[in-house]
Design brief:
3 domains; 6-stranded antiparallel beta sheet; 49% helix; 15 strands; alpha/beta; Aminoglycoside 3'-phosphotransferase, Chain: A, domain 2
């Protein structure tokens, strides 16, 4: 049984021989990570865990590796049932191994259906092929998984308690610090540790409340572009954390923070904002945003820890590259500790004026959390964003009292998000003066910039756009021509004392 990395490496070298497999195999290709090897044979892939004990994982014995392999298959079948096939024994000897052969077992492997290596989103990104469509698919898939496919932590479990959240954060600092050579890097790490300790103390009551309210769930745990692939025009999510339950039983905001941070590190701030907004829009978990910055810093330091560990496993230029990555991630983590420039923007425009198209661009660059009245109105009524309520003009969901509840809800959410240090855009018609005044007051009481994005569009163009949107049938808005006519008859134009806040938008 291989007990050291060098002994396991001999096994991997032997498995380059296609005759070791009980099926047809082409030339075997090996992908090595810091904790495993993946052997690509053509139709199938096999993942073998390294005999390591890194503190946050322990694969040091055969029994522990078998247990981790079984957990890996079971957990990953939640999101990729067609990929994760079985746990198979490796028999024979390291010099003459046999996958799924007879005789005594000396190692185990996870058997997977192979997909193209270049299909992973990190490689797609490196090749310039990643698009906003892929990012939106990540957000939609993750939202469904978090609210339909994740078990909730039991109230009496330790997972997701403030102390359990703190432990891996502390471990990051303990494992990074001894591997830093540059005093400037150590200074950055020390500052991040002080910030993390202060934030944890401040947020601990909310962490406990989130646990009580069911937001700690059995998540993926390692959600970044390298563990996502685009296969057969669909998103594939694979390789979740199986080796440490405390890294998997986490607040869903911690999971979101990893993908958000990953996109930022890759230079895609606009897509990071897009991903975050799409996930929030689908889940409504705006209350969790107060934790996102803390978790994003933690996630950047998880990646810095992995790079730091790699410095002990490499030398020369490879080690220098790993050290440079550690420094980059420390800088990113430091940036993430700071709030964005604060502002509250609202829109003013009739249905079909292009508000949603423009606010999507602005929520991505320079970046903001967007709230949409069409989505929140339906959420208050317990409806999905794309559901058709069948409400008539001024009735049911669109009655005067429902509209007041919707705008009061938008104002409350906007205030709470601003209070947590995130800029906000509210996408709604704001045809009534009281609606605009409500949000202006939210901004003024917090001393943040307030702007009205005004969308003056000819009525004929509005009518044409509404008809086209209705035919497409894929928009959350239920506004038809009757709604537009009602808006035209009841709108209260911007007053002279509002002119200083107006930013004209030409669509």
């Amino acid at each position: 049984m291989p007990e050291t990395i060098s002994e396991s490496a001999k096994l991997i070298q032997s498995l380059h021989n296609p005759a070791c497999f009980n099926h047809a195999a082409g030339p075997v290709r090996v992908i090595e990570t810091h904790i495993s090897w993946v052997l690509l044979t053509g139709e199938f892939a096999y993942k073998i865990k390294k005999p390591l004990n890194l503190g946050f994982l322990d694969f040091s014995s055969l029994d522990k590796r078998l247990h981790a392999c079984c957990d890996e298959v079971q957990l990953n079948r939640r999101l990729a049932p067609a990929i994760y096939l079985d746990v198979v024994p490796i028999t024979g000897t390291p010099a003459a191994p046999r996958i799924n052969g007879s005789g005594a077992t000396f190692e185990y492997a996870v058997k997977m259906r192979q997909f193209p290596v270049d299909a992973t989103l990190d490689r797609l990104d490196a090749a310039g092929g990643l698009t906003a469509h892929h990012v939106e698919a990540i957000a939609a898939t993750l939202a469904r998984f978090h609210f339909e496919g994740c078990a909730r932590a039991a109230s009496d479990s330790l997972w997701g308690t403030p102390e359990k959240i703190r432990q891996p954060v502390v471990q990051n600092f303990e494992q990074i610090a001894p591997r830093l050579d540059d005093p400037a890097d150590q200074h950055s790490l020390d500052a991040l540790q002080r910030w993390s300790e202060t934030e944890h103390a401040r947020l601990a009551p909310l962490m406990a409340a989130r646990k009580r309210d069911g937001f700690v769930r059995e998540c993926h745990g390692d959600l970044h572009l390298g563990n996502l692939a685009w296969v057969d025009e669909q998103l594939l999510v694979f390789d979740c954390i199986e080796f440490n339950p405390e890294l998997r039983w986490i607040d869903i905001q911690s999971e979101v923070a990893f993908c958000y941070m990953d996109l930022l590190q890759r230079g895609h701030a606009d897509w990071a904002w897009l991903f975050l907004n799409r996930w929030l829009e689908a889940t409504g978990d705006y209350a969790g945003l107060v934790l996102l910055r803390y978790y994003a810093v933690y996630r950047a330091l998880v990646r810095a820890k992995v790079a730091a560990i790699r410095t002990a496993q490499t030398s020369g230029q490879e080690r220098a590259a790993a050290l440079a990555e550690v420094r980059t991630l420390l800088n990113l983590a430091s940036t993430l500790t700071h709030a964005q420039p604060m502002r509250l923007d609202i829109t003013h425009g009739l249905s079909g004026s292009g508000k949603t198209t423009v606010t999507q661009k602005r929520m991505q660059t320079p970046g903001a959390i967007r709230l949409r009245s069409d989505v929140e109105r339906k959420r208050l009524a317990g409806l999905d964003a794309l559901a058709k309520s069948g409400s008539g003009v001024g009735r049911d969901l669109y009655a005067a009292d429902a509209t007041r509840r919707t705008y009061a809800h938008l104002a409350r959410l906007a205030g709470e998000i601003l209070d947590t240090g995130w800029p906000v855009i509210v996408d709604a018609t704001f045809t009534a003066r009281w609606q605009r005044d409500l949000l202006r007051e939210v901004a003024h009481t917090r001393n943040v910039e307030f702007r009205i994005l005004d969308f003056p569009v000819p009525v004929a163009t509005l009518r044409e756009r509404i008809v086209q949107r209705s035919r497409a049938g894929n928009d959350v808005s239920e506004a038809d021509l009757a709604v537009l006519q009602h808006q035209l008859e009841s709108e209260e134009p911007l007053d002279t004392d509002e002119q200083a806040d107006i930013v004209g938008i030409d669509t």
